[in-house]
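Reading a protein record of the kind used here takes only a little practice. The record below shows the convention in full:
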Amino acid sequence: MKESTRGVLLSGLVYPGLGQLILGQVFAGVLFILLTTAGLFVFIYRIVQRSVRIIDEILPLLANNKIDVNTLNERLSRDSAGGWGVETISLIAVAGCWLAAMVHAYFAGKKIDQQPTK
């Protein structure tokens, strides 16, 4: 298998930066891994934070049997409104990092593929 193909497959299907590490591009690999992991961490942290806040609002209503579908829908809609939140931005950053890692791994592998064999 060509190195360019191997690099793209590892960075695209397994985890961004893994293809760079396998191809010997340690700095780029670690950078892509850290950036992607940080973006995923921010995304997951904010989603959990939002979920806990919604649950904290709904639990007292459940305990008093004062919740119905409309109240639940209103609480969920109110919390998810707001445009470009941190979650959206971090998810776009992760997708961009994933794409950049694939492109970088392809060109790094292509450079290795073009080297004369010994």
